[in-house]
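Thread: quick sanity check before group meeting

JM: Hey all, I'm pulling together slides for Thursday and realized we never actually wrote out the predicted structure for the chain we discussed last week. Dropping the sequence here so it's in one place. If anyone has concerns about the input, flag it before I start.
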Amino acid sequence: MGAPATPPPPEATLIRLVREASGLSPETAAARMEIKFSGSRWRQIEKGYRRDSDTEVIAPDATLAHMCWTLGITSDRLAETGRTKAVEILREMERAKAPTPAPPEAAPLAELDEWQQQVILNTLDNQPRSDREKALLLRTLAAKIEAAADDGDDGDNGSPPRHGTAGRSAS
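JM (edit): ok, ran it. Output follows.
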């Protein structure tokens, strides 16, 4: 058993190059996927073969789309490899997970002072996160705040606020 006689498919090479450029190990990249996936399987797909059985490995379309999503590879870039079905799946993921633009009247982050915005961004930087993960975290937080506002919980109902207001005094 040894290396395969043929090179890995173009999509596998793309995945490997982008992962390496991101400084991620296959295990770290696999752990960031939204589906359960192992680092060893990631390596097999990148290499295009499975060493223990000396067989060719081609990523299933959905798996390939999730790998690309995890690494931030766009559907247009994946299309260059010829994996049409995986491109369709990735395009659907892009559509479904695209942030919905906030209405013009709802720009609370922009209304904050620069130092307040920086506190939020510094807090996000305390733990290693990708820009995509930070954006998701902010969208999730915004959705929770909007849901609380929709429920009429604006903190003026006599009960204490659910979240602390660090850095503000009661004067």
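AS: nice. The chain has nine helices and two strands. Confidence is low (pLDDT under 50) at residues 154-171.
JM: adding both to the slides.
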